[in-house]
Design a protein that fits this description.
The structure holds two protein chains of two kinds.
Chain A (H helix, E strand, L loop, with lengths): L1 E10 L3 E11 L4 E6 L5 H9 L7 E10 L2 E2 L5 H6 L2 E4 L11 H8 L9 H11 L1 H5 L10 H14 L4 E5 L7 H18 L2 E6 L2 H7 L2 E6 L2 E7 H6 L1 H6 L6 H16 L2
Parallel strand pairs in A: 3-8, 3-9, 6-7, 7-8
Antiparallel strand pairs in A: 1-2, 1-4, 4-5, 9-10
Chain B lengths: L1 H31 L6 H18 L4 H24 L7 H23 L15 E3 L2 E3 L1 H23 L1 H11 L1 H6 L4 H27 L8 H12 L4 H26 L3 H16 L14
Antiparallel strand pairs in B: 1-2
Helix pairs in contact in B: 1-5, 1-6, 1-8, 1-9, 1-10, 2-3, 2-4, 2-8, 2-9, 3-8, 5-6, 6-8, 9-10, 9-11, 10-11
């Protein structure tokens, strides 16, 4: 469904953020994209959604393909219309708009204005808390509620593919679990494909079908979730299992291994 | 007492027009942080265009006004396309400077086309004043006030319920997030400039019918600054209330204080208010201020 082929992305014409990034999202699946800070996860999502240009970045090589169509150079609004919705890192709800107005704004590109109210009700079904808060300005919501709103707002656009950037950022662990269960539920009920970027590998791998691990602007490891969970390096590095000694050793070892790339 | 009420009525009417013009100013500021210093010239052009259409043809006022509004929409669109959009990655201060340049350009253009003589509108409303008890109101004041009220209500509904209105507020809140909704920020900005030009033209036409159309009208662009600073630069409601307040205070000062000091205070008072407001409440009465939850 979505194919990112060997993409190279640059900020301010000189900072190389992606060096040959490739990944694939099949229809109806949840794909996790993991990696440490600065690995290029968010840049990958921005290259897909076209928001890269608003941060002064551009794709200098490679292609992004969605349902057989090349997205390179398309404007963000054209990409939303083709069925990809990007929930940005840090939630970015509209603080002075009410919860319900935020949801309406999510449906901006839709032509079927009549069904919007019905879909807003459906979002309240997924996130019942939002229903009680619908008249409240979104800026006054808690972090978790804002994240629910940000995801709900994305669903209002009826996307075929939802890009989620760090939905767990700054949210209490208990709520993180809840939100990820919601994500799984959405994927199953709506058939929306999901590409989720996370630092919290544990919770992301729990719901994902397939995972990619990024470092330095490219994929260093990928595989079915079960295989990733068993992998020693993933356990030490991203899941926080194992001793501190192990981790140091692995960092050193893995760096050497990666020189081959 | 009658004198006071008379001044109050004038103040409210003029103030409502200030509020209307300030609305356009605030819209642009909210969506792009730009102070449109060519706002006064928009008012001027609106007034002149409507006047010229009315005198050159025998069209009824309402038709002339509608044509003026269409021309204003085009003016707003072309300013956004030719001046603002090419500067989209430039610092805000550069764009503000560009609006100053635009103000000179448009001001010069008006001089070239219409000269600098003050012209009067053909009679649109009956000149026979209406008596409310001891109060005398000329129909043009009454109609101006009604027009502005209708427009303000329309805009409130527009921002609350229409797709474009919500999109405009979304862009004002967080342009990048709005982009990720599939909202075309370019189009929203174009519509914002068009609305600013339209309300300015309506303001120009109404003021022109009250005082005549002349280059001096562009100073409303300056008077609008105190209005928005008083109301809060980013508050639409503040702009309207600020408009009424400045209009009323200005006319009270003109009525009571000017005879004592020999005149001129009417023009100065709004700026005295600006100084006080900046000292006491720098974000204005309804502005949101710097601190906010992230």
């Amino acid at each position: 469904m979505l194919k990112v082929n060997n993409v190279e992305a640059v900020y301010s014409k000189m900072i190389l953020a992606l060096r040959g990034m490739s990944l694939e999202v099949p229809k109806g699946k949840i794909i996790a994209l993991l990696g440490s800070n600065g690995a290029g996860k968010s840049t990958t999502l921005q290259s897909i959604s076209g928001l890269l240009s608003s941060d002064g970045g551009q794709i200098t090589d490679g292609t992004v393909e969605f349902e057989g169509e090349t997205l390179n150079g398309k404007s963000p609004d054209a990409i939303v219309k083709s069925g990809i919705f990007h929930c940005m890192e840090g939630r970015h709800v509209f603080p002075h708009l009410t919860v319900e107005e935020n949801l309406t704004a999510g449906a901006y590109t839709r032509k079927d204005r009549r069904n919007i109210q019905k879909d807003i009700d459906k979002i309240y079904g997924y996130f019942p808390k939002l229903r009680d808060l619908k008249k409240r300005p979104a800026g006054l919501l808690s972090g978790g509620e804002q994240q629910m709103l940000a995801i709900g707002r994305g669903l209002m656009a009826k996307p075929k593919l939802l890009l989620l950037d760090e939905p767990s950022l700054g949210i209490a662990p208990l709520l993180v679990e809840e939100i990820f269960e919601n994500i799984k539920q959405i994927n199953e009920e709506e058939g929306t494909s999901i590409l989720v970027v996370e630092q919290n590998a544990n919770v992301a791998l729990k719901i994902a079908d397939y995972g990619y691990i990024m470092e330095n602007g490219r994929v260093v490891m990928q595989g079915e979730v079960d295989r990733l969970l068993e992998d020693d390096e993933v356990q030490n590095h991203y899941l926080g299992i194992g001793t501190e000694e192990d981790q140091k050793e692995v960092v050193y070892k893995s760096k050497q291994e990666r020189m081959v790339w | 007492m009658d004198f006071f009420l008379q001044i109050l009525v004038t103040g409210i009417v003029v103030g409502s027009i200030y509020g209307l013009v300030a609305l356009g100013f605030v819209l642009i500021y909210r969506s792009s942080d730009v102070l449109n210093l060519a706002n006064g010239e928009f008012v001027l052009i609106g007034g002149y265009v409507c006047l010229t259409i009315m005198t050159a043809s025998n069209l009824p006022f309402i038709v002339a006004l509608l044509i003026t509004l269409v021309i204003s929409v085009l003016l707003g669109f072309s300013v956004e396309r030719l001046v603002i959009r090419p500067l989209k990655n430039a610092p805000v201060i550069s764009i503000i400077m560009a609006t100053i340049g635009l103000a000179s350009l448009l001001g010069g253009l008006v001089h070239m086309v219409w000269g600098h003589r003050t012209r009067t509108f053909p009679q649109v409303f009956p000149s026979e004043p209406i008596h409310f008890g001891g109060l005398i109101i000329t129909p043009v004041y009454l109609w101006s006030f009604i027009t502005v009220l209708v427009l303000l209500v329309t805009f409130t509904l527009f921002f609350k319920f229409s797709k474009m209105g919500i999109a405009m507020r979304a862009v004002a809140d967080d342009a990048k997030a709005a982009m990720s909704m599939g909202i075309s920020v370019k189009n929203v900005l174009a519509v914002t400039w068009a609305i600013a030009a339209v309300v300015a033209a309506i303001g120009g036409t109404l003021l022109g019918m009250i005082n005549g159309v002349g280059p001096i009208m562009a100073t409303i662009g300056l008077t609008v600054l105190p209005v928005v600073i008083l109301g809060g630069l980013d508050s639409i409601g503040g702009a309207i209330i600020g408009g009424f307040l400045i209009g009323i205070i200005q006319n009270l000062a003109g009525g009571y204080l000017d005879p004592m000091v020999g005149g001129g205070l009417k023009e100065v008072v709004p700026f005295i208010i600006v100084l006080l407001i900046l000292l006491l409440k720098p974000y204005g009465l309804f502005g949101k201020g710097g601190a906010e939850r992230v």
